[in-house]
C-alpha cells in the first residue's frame, strides 16, 4: 500500500527501536521520511541504508529536540530543502527508570525537556510548514504508564509523558483551523531495550504478559502500525485523542478472574528481548500438570541479579572501540592535597600567592626590584605547597631520609591516591608517563650548585698564596656552608634526576617492568604524557597508563624567566583579564589513571570521564622561540576537532591562559576561531588561583574538568574583572564566567570540556574530555579520532651524528666499524660557534643557549640535506623526538651564576676570621670564574637552558608542525625517543619523524652528581661524552613510496626484568661506560652501531636497576663493512628483479591466480525470511559455559543442552558430556528421543581461550565443543538437512576492534562446511563482541531474518560485518631489499616435501639462508639402499617389499604405506640436496619430529635457537587432508586432520616463547576461507591459522601471516593423480604451476605492507566460489560471468579478454542501477558524465591489475546513457585496449558503445559510441601538489543551479554533494560533503571518486551572467583528470569528512572550443586529492539566482524545465 506516496514525514528519534519501526512503516507506505537523531549517528546511517535498500526515500537530520536552537535549525533546513511537511511523529524521549527515592530534579528536568517541551517545540515549528500544504498530522508517542495506569519505576518519566498527552488535546484545538490533526499513540510495554532497562525486567515482563489477554508483549512493529494509521488519511476524522494499543491489558481481566490453572509456555527464549519479537505460546500435547516451581535458591537469585546487572550494563555501554577511560586521579597543589580538596578550593578561592617561604630559599640574594639587575628576579612571590599531607602509606617505600625530593613525594602521593580502587591484575602491563623537567627540582638544582661550586672553590683555594692550614680551613668552611645552605642536594644526588624521580615515585607502587617516560614539552608536558599513554593503550602495548606531571619551584627559573619580562609585577596571575601583567609559577603534581573504556567496564572500575581527542602541533617558524604563536595553537585545536567531536559540542574550555598579555591574546584568538560560533562556551583558567604548575598544569586542568562534570558546575574565573578588549568577546559566544555556572548532565547531550596546553618553545596540545554516561545506549556517542595505531613497520631511513673530533660521516663510520680515530669527549669549554649561514640566530642568542640546541641543529641540517624534497613536502607532518638525560650544561652553569650572591652571603655569615682576606678572594675569583663560563642572563637564557627546547629548536628553525618532545628515561632516553616517534608514525599523525639522543653536558660537577648510577666500569677521572645522534623514521609504506633508503626497522621496545646476551645484543646501560657516558645519547650511539652491523636482528638493551629496556631492530646491513665489498658467495642484498613482475612468473608465462585480501566490510541488513527464535521448540544447545544456565532459564521444555563443561543446573534436558565421543553424543541425542531440527552453539571465546596465553596452550574446552558440534551434525544429519531446520553458532567475545578472536576460525571453518553440506537448512555463525548470552542470543535471532551470501557474520559495536575479498597485488616498485640473506635462519615445518619444499628451495636459490626442516618421516632410519638408484628402478621393488612384509606378518595395506613412506623419504632427500646446492653443504638440517608432540617440538626449537641468534622466518606448513562428507567422515580422522594444524601451531608458539620468529608464515588453504564439501576438519584447521595470524598481527604486533593457497600443479595435493584428474574434470582449480607458487611466495615475503591473511584465486576458483556462494564476494547477488570478486561494478560480463584487450557488457536498468533515480535529467534517470571515469578505470585495471589509475585524458561525451524502469535495453559494450606499455606507465583506451535496436528487434545503429576516454596507470600515485587557501573576504554566495527546483536536472541523495557554493574574485568555491551508507553495494565497489568529480564539474559552472543568471551546462569533453590517491567517494568521506572545491578562472569559459580552466579538490590542509583541467561544455539553460526561475539557453524565462543532459 502506497497511500502516503508524496508525503513528507519527520520522525524524531527515528533511528532506533520504536522510532526505526515507525520510520520503516511510513517509508513502506510511500512517505519520504526525515529521520531526526542526535546521539545515534551510526544507527541512523544504518536505518537509512536499510530503508533505501527497500526502496524508501530517507533524509537524516541531526538535532536535539531538547534544545530550541537545534529545533530551529532543523526546521529551517526542512523549509529550505522541502518547503513543507505533512507528518510529524514526536517519538524522541528521555527519562530514567528508577525508584521513587532515587528521583532527582535533574532526572525530572531531563524527561520534561525532551518528552514535554521537546514535543511542544517541534509541533509548533511543524505547524506552519504543514499549513502551507493544506494540513497535516502530528502523532505523539506515549506510554500506558503515563496517564492510564501506574507502572513501577516510571515516575521520573510519567509526568512528562502525561503532559505530552495534555499538549495533544490543546494543540488539536489550536491547530484544527489549519486542518492539522494532533493525536497520541500510546502503548503498553513493548519488546525493546527500554523494557529490559526496568529494574527486575524479566519479572515485570512476565507479569504484564500474564495480565494481557493476547498473551504477549507488543512489538515495535505492532505499534508502528498504530502510529501510521493516525498519520494517514484513514484517521482523518480523529483528532485530540489518545489511542491505546495494549493487547487488552487495561481490560483488567486478571483482576476479575481466578488464577490460571497452568502456566503458559514461556514465550521468550533467553532473556534479553531488545529488538526481538516474542513468540506466542504454542499448543502443547496434553500432559500431566507440572509441579509448582521450587523457590529460587539465594545463590541462583544472586547470579540472576548479576546477569541482569551485566545485561543492563551492556545495554548502556556506549564504549566506542577506542574510547579511553579515566579511572583514577590524584594530586597535590598549593592549598589542596586531593582532587576533592582542590574542588573546594576552586569554588571558594584562597590567596595562595605568597613571598618565598624561609624553608625554601632566602629571597634577598635572588631579588631586585630593578628589572635590569643582573641575575636577579624582580618578583619574589610564587605559589608553594606548604601544607602537604601525604596519602597514608604513600611515602613508606622512600625510607627515612629527611630530604625526600619534593616532586618525588608529591608524585608518589598522587599516584597512590589515583590508584585507589582501580582494579589491576598481576599480568597487567603498565606505563608511567610524567610531564617533568630537570629544571623543576629544587633538590637537583642545589645538588648541581654544591658540586659545581665545591669543585671550582677547591681549584681556587689550592691556588691561594696562604698557608696550607688556612687553605684547609677555608675549604672546610666552604664545604660546611654549602652542605648547610643547600642541604637538599648533598646526599646521593642522582636520585634527583628526572628518571630517578619517576622510578622512586613508582617503586613498590607499580611493577618494576613499568615503562617509564619523563616527558618534556614545557607547559604542555603532562598533556603529551596523556597522549603518549593513550597511544600505548590503543596499540595494545599497555593495559594501564598512569599519566601526570610534577614541578617544584627553585630560584634559577624565577631569575631567568624574569629576563623575559614575563613575571607578574603585581605578584599574582590575572588570567584572561584586561589587567593581566604576567605569570607566577607554582608547585604542583597530579596524576590520572587511564584504561581502554571496555577494559575499565569489564574490570568494574569507576569511569570518571573519557578522553575523546587530542591535537598536537609545533609552532614552527615564527618570531622568537618563546613568543606565543596563534597559528601553531590553532593547528593543535583543529587537529583535536578533526574527529566526531566538534567545537560546538564543547561547553567549557580550560585555557592555558597564564596571564601574560601576549600569550592570553594569542590563545583567545585561537579559541575564538573555533568555539562560541553557534552556542555559548565558557573559558576559564585555574592559574589565577593556584598559579602556573608548569609541567603538571595540563593534568591539573583535566582533573578540574572531571570534577566539574562530577559536581555539575563550571567554576567562575578567579581574579577576573573585565576581559582584554582585544579579545573582542562581544563578537563571539565565548564567555568568561564571573559566577559559577550550573552544568548538569542532560539527556541527549554529552558534556564536553577542552583543555589546552601551549608549551614554552612552541609545543601545543589540545585535549577533549567528555563525561561518561553509564545510562546511554550502546553507540549513543560517536567515536573520537583516537585511532588505534597500525601495525605497520617503522623504517629507519637516515642517520646523522655530531660528535667532537669527527667532522664527517665517513669518520664516524670509521670510528664505529674499523677502529678509526675515536670521537673526543667534549667540544670544549665553549662550543664552536656555527656559521650564520647554517644557524641564522643572533650571536648573543648563540652564546646564551645550550650547546645541545646547536648540536641538534647540526644533525638536522645533515638529515635535511639527505632528502630535501621529502623534508619540505612533509614539514607539516614531521615531528621531533629527542632523548636527553638530566639538566643541560647551560642550566647548571646558570644555576651557579644565579646562586653567587646567595653563596657569598652565606659564606660571609659563616666567616670566623681565619686567613683574613682569603675568603673574600675566593668569593671574588669564584664570581669571576663562574661568570666567565656563561654570559649574563637575558631573554634567551631561559629557553636556552631548557631541555624541551632542544627538540623545539629544530621544529622552530625548520618550520616543522608535528609535535616536538624531549624525553628522559635515563640512559635509555634515546631508545624511548625512537619508540615514542614510532607511536606517532603508526597513528598516522606523522609522515616523518626525527628521533634520537643527545648529551651536551660533560661538566665535571655533573659527573659527580651521576657517580652512583654507573657500574664497576666507572672511573672518577673518566669524562662524560658529548654527542648528538639523530635518525629519520618513516613507515615502511611511506619510505618505499618516496624511494628512501631503508637501513633497518624498529620492531618494538619492551621493559622487562631480564638481561639479554649474545652477539646480536648491544648494551648501552650504566655498566658499559664507553656508551653510557653519552647519557641521553647512549641509545643513539648504540642504534648507530646497530645500523653498521650485518643484516639481521639486533637488540639494544639498557639495564637500569632491576629492569631492562630493550629496543628490537632488524637491520638491513646497508652500512655493514661487508656491504661495501660483498664476498663472492654472499647472498644478494636485493630481491631478484624477476619477482617484481606482477604479470608473469616467467617470460611468456602469465600469472594464473591473483592475490586477494580479506577485508571486514559492513553488510546490508536486508530482511528476506521469517525470524526463527534463538531457542525454538526441540532445540539442541551445545556449550562449554558452565554458568549458561543462568541465562537460559526459559528454555523450551523439549530442549536439550549438551555441555562439555560441568553444568551448574540440575534440571531435565541438561547433560554434561564428561567425554566427547561419537558414542556419548549419540547416546545423549537418543535419550532426548526427538528429531533434531535446530542446533545452537553458545560459547565465549574470550573466556574459553584467553589471549594471548591460549595461543600456546590451546583450549581443551573449545576443541571439545568443536568435537561435539561435528558429532551432533553427523548423528542428526538427515534431521537437519530439511527445510525449516537451522544450525546457528553464537560465539561471544569473538571480535574486538574489528579483529576476530584467534580461535574464531576453528568454528567458522566448520560452519562453512556445514553450510555447503546442509543445503536445506539455515546455517550461519555469528561472531560478536558481546559477552552477554542474553544480548548475543537476540542478535543471533535477529540475524535469522537477514540475507547473507556467506554463512559467517561478525558484529562489533552494533555494526554487522562480513569478510569480502579485495584485489590487492603486491607492489614491488624499484629495487627491494631482501628480507633474507645468508645469515638468516629459516625453519620450515613439513618442509622437506610438497609445496613447502618447493618454496624453501626457491629461498635457498635466491637468498641462501641457513635452513632447518622438520618432518614426520625419520629419514635416517632407512637403510642406505632406499636412497640408491633412480625412482623408476626403486618403484619396481614395491612387489618385493610387499612379499617381504607379508612374510613378516604385515598385511598388504601396511606394506604399501611403508613403501609410500620410503618414496616420500627419497623425495625429501632430493629436496634437501637441492637446498644444500644453494645454501651450502651442512647448512640444511632435518629433524624428524611430530608437530603434535609438544616436547619434541620444544626440543627442536631449542636446538635451532642454540645454534644462532633466532629464527628469521618460520614456515608452519604441516597438514594433511582426506575428503569425506560430514555424514560419512570418521571421527578419529576428523580430529587428526584438524589437530595437526591446531596442535602444531600451539606447540610452536609455546616452544618459541619470548623468542618468536621475526616472520611467521602459516600455509593455509583456499578451503579454509571458503570451506568445501567433505572438508570440515581441513577447513577448520586452516581457518584457525588465518584468524590466529590476524590476531597476532593486528593485536599482538607480530609479523605473522597466513597464505590461503589454491591447488599447486604436480605437488602437494596436486601430486595425487586421482585428485588432480578429479579437479581438472570439475574445473574447480587453476592448477597453479610450482614456479608461479614460489613467485607469489617471494613477493608476499617482501610485500611493503603485509596483510595477516591472503588467498589466491584464479578464474576457475572464482567460478567455483560463485557456484558455492552466488554473488560472493561482491555481495550483489547478481554475479558477473566468471565470478570475479573485484572486477568492478560495471564490468558485469566478460565477452572476451586477452593480455592487451578486453570486451565487457553491462546492462543499464534500474534494477541494478537504481542509484540513477537520484540523478534525473528531464525526469529520466541518467548516468552523470563523470561516471565514465569509473567505467573506464575498471576496464583499464582489468588489463593492468597491479597498477593504479592516476590520470584520464581526452574524455569525450557523445551520447549520454539513460536507464528506464521495467525496460531492458541492449547492454552497453565496454571495450578496453592497451595502446602503450612503458616501464612506468600503461595507457589504455576505453570506449563505451551500444547497438540501437528497434522494439521489433531490427538493428538500427551498430555500435553507437557513448563515451571514450584514455586511462593512464602506473605502480603508485604521484606526489600531490599543495593548494593555498584563497582570501574569501569578497565571497558572494550563489545558488547551485542543479539544486534549484526549476532545474531540468534533479539531484537527490548522494548526488547532493556540494554545499556553500560561492563566487570569489579568484574563482568559484564549494564544499564537497556526501553521506554514503557504509558497505553500500554500489558506492563501496567503486574505485574512482565519481561523485566528487561530478560535484567538481558543477562547481566549475558557477557564474553570474547578467548579474542574476547561473548557467546549467552539459559536459562535452575533459582534457585531463588527475588523481593523487586511490579512494572512492565512501573512502574519501571516511578519510577526510569533507573536501574544499576550487575552480578557476573566475569567469565562465567552458562553452569555448579551447577552454582553459582548472578545477581542484583539496583537503582542509591544502593537499590536492583530484583535479580536472580544460572542461568543455554546452549551456542548456540558466537558473535565476534570485527567483529560482529557469531560463532557456537564449536567456528567455520558461515556466517548464527544458530538456537537458549531463
From TrEMBL:
Record-annotated active site: 1719 (proton acceptor), 1894 (proton donor)
Region called Disordered, residue ranges: 265-303
Organism name: Streptomyces eurocidicus
Superkingdom, natural source: Bacteria
C-terminal hotdog fold: region residues: 1828-1986
Name recorded for this polypeptide: 3-oxoacyl-(Acyl-carrier-protein) synthase/NAD(P)-dependent dehydrogenase (Short-subunit alcohol dehydrogenase family)
One GO term of the biological process aspect: fatty acid biosynthetic process
UniProt similarity note: Belongs to the thiolase-like superfamily. Beta-ketoacyl-ACP synthases family.
